[in-house]
């Protein structure tokens, strides 16, 4: 056979070799013991304090603003369902037990949905995942106001929980990679404050809408308003600058960012859990 005939066969073999080498590396990584690092050698420890203003100057205000506003609006969802539960119950004709089960669907999908969402966030741009999931959540809230029976409401609450599940694996890592380590506590304090403000305002919002729209349609209007308010903010997440993962840790430990590997295979979920298994404090956290 000529040289021209042998060349195409090299590509599959090279790919197979790369896959085998990567799997070997992962297998070896499972058996390696994690090195013990002194506390003062951890990223950000003993670093100079940084003000929130300086952190926003370096990372930009867009990411924190969009995630903060979405965090505040998210709590409106459960507030409307809880505050206006009697009106919802009368409208769709269900018992207290059924309504409680419907409300629990949101929490179940919120937790379970975080696992596949976290896998997607490791492989896709996180800003796109945030924009798509929260946009779908907004549309689902609008459709929630159209529910006519228990089954439709159950599906709507499940969809809302699945849409919100992105916030667990996406929002925190986006803020972590966008803003310097020295100001992360301040950044997350801003996020927590926005959610607290949303929690305080949400019951008054639900009551005011119900009073204006009437008891029969108040909860429908409230869900629709939340969805319409959140949709443009969710879409604006597409304008966020996608930060490189772990960039601040690289700068803190190595003094520079390592070059990106375009052909690097994503870390599997099993390897990630194997790594977590070796962290003793992780068990106490759970």
Structural description of this entry:
- Helices cover 73% and strands 0% of the residues.
- It is mainly α and 286 residues long.
- It is globular, with a radius of gyration of 24 Å.
- The model has no long low-confidence stretch (mean pLDDT 82).
Element pattern in H and E? HHHHHHHHHHHHHH
| Gyration radius, in Å | 24 Å
Q: Stretches where pLDDT falls below 50 for ≥5 residues? A: none
- Could you report the average pLDDT, rounded to the nearest whole number? 82
Q: Helix coverage percent of residues?
A: over 70%
The biggest sheet, with number of strands, parallel, antiparallel or mixed sense and barrel status, is: none
Question: What's the shape?
Answer: globular
Count of DSSP-assigned helices = 14
| Helix/strand class | mainly alpha
Distance between the termini: 61 Å
Note the beta-strand portion.
under 5%
- According to DSSP, the number of beta strands is 0
């Amino acid at each position: 056979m000529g040289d021209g005939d042998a060349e195409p066969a090299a590509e599959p073999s090279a790919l197979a070799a790369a896959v085998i080498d990567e799997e070997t590396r992962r297998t070896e990584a499972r058996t390696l013991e994690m090195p013990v690092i002194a506390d003062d050698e951890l990223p950000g420890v003993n670093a100079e304090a940084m003000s929130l203003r300086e952190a926003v100057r370096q990372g930009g205000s867009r990411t924190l603003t969009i995630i903060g506003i979405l965090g505040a609006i998210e709590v409106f969802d459960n507030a409307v369902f809880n505050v206006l539960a009697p009106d919802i119950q009368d409208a769709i004709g269900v018992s207290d037990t059924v309504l409680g089960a419907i409300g629990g669907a949101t929490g179940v999908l919120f937790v379970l949905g975080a696992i596949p969402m976290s896998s997607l966030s490791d492989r896709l741009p996180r800003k796109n995942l945030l924009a798509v999931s929260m946009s779908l959540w907004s549309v689902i809230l609008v459709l929630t106001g159209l529910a006519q029976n228990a089954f439709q409401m159950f599906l709507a609450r499940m969809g809302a929980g699945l849409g919100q599940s992105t916030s667990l694996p996406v929002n925190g890592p986006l803020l972590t990679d966008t803003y310097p380590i020295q100001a992360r506590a301040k950044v997350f304090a801003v996020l927590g404050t926005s959610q607290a403000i949303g929690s305080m305002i949400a019951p008054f919002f639900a009551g005011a809408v119900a009073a204006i729209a009437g008891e029969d349609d108040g909860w429908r209007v409230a869900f629709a308003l939340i969805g319409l308010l959140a949709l443009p903010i969710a879409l604006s997440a597409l304008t966020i600058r996608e930060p490189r993962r772990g960039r601040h840790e690289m700068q803190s430990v190595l003094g520079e960012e390592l070059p990106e590997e375009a052909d690097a295979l994503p870390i599997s979920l099993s390897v990630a859990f194997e790594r977590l298994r070796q962290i003793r404090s992780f068990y106490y956290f759970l």
